[in-house]
Design goal:
Number of helices: 6
Order of helices and strands: HEEEHEHEHEEHH
CATH superfamily of the largest domain: Glutaredoxin
Largest sheet: 5 strands, mixed
Low-confidence stretches: 20-35, 190-202
Structural class: alpha/beta
Shape: globular
CATH architecture of the largest domain: 3-Layer(aba) Sandwich
Strand order of the largest sheet: 5-4-3-6-7
Number of domains: 2
CATH class of the largest domain: Alpha Beta
Helix content: 25-40%
Mean pLDDT: 81
Distance between the termini: 85 Å
């Protein structure tokens, strides 16, 4: 005669495994953005910083520079493969003068970074260097590239982990800017928009 306790010894772990698998499956199905890690900075004031400019002779790059206007802060590095993949999108944003882009060159060699921008083009209005990673830590950066949308009031409105694409820019960034300021939506959506936010390549 079989021992019931022996069967239970196998059935209980199996039942726990099935239950955990079910919970995990439900969570994955219900997650609307499975590739997005929520940032505790959303809705809060952007962390303050002041770092050296990547380009000699230029003043420090600081968080004071994006107050009073919509700004895209992009954390990147010349060592970052995904940064190269998103670069054409950043250049397009600059060409359309939709918002100024402040670049934070993270944990990088300055010569390599400047050569990289010389070869691929410079989409940034300013580029600061974050050699010790303090800015990245304060901003909760997991890895490059990451992009943050900052409101004119200085709040972090959205965070993108991974490469920027035209679709992500329109859906997550530009849509939020246009919703906050419908009067300027048409101009920002047009390639012929005012180019005040764009600056010449360095």
């Amino acid at each position: 005669m079989s021992d019931p306790s022996g069967k239970l010894r196998y059935l209980i772990p199996l039942g726990v495994f099935v239950l955990l698998l079910g919970v995990l499956t439900v969570g994955l199905v219900r997650a609307p953005e499975k590739d997005i890690i929520p940032s505790p900075l959303i809705g809060k004031s952007a962390p303050q910083f002041s770092v050296p400019n990547l380009f000699a002779g230029q003043g420090a790059v600081s968080s004071e520079q994006f107050k009073g206007r919509w700004t895209l802060v992009n954390v990147w590095g010349s060592w970052c493969y995904a940064c190269r993949a998103e670069h054409p999108t950043l250049l397009s944003i600059k060409q359309q003068a939709q918002v100024p882009i402040i670049g934070i060159d993270w944990n990088d060699d300055e010569t390599d970074a400047r050569d990289w921008l010389d070869q691929l083009g410079n989409p940034y209005s300013e580029v600061g260097t974050d050699h010790d990673g303090k800015v990245a830590i304060d901003w909760g950066v997991y890895g490059a590239p990451e992009s943050f949308l900052i409101s004119p009031g200085g709040q972090v409105v959205y965070k993108q982990i991974g490469a920027m694409t035209p679709e992500i820019w329109r859906r997550e960034f530009l849509a939020r800017i246009n919703a906050a300021n419908p009067a300027g939506a048409a101009a920002r959506s047009s390639p012929g928009a005012t180019r005040a936010a764009a600056t010449p390549d360095r």
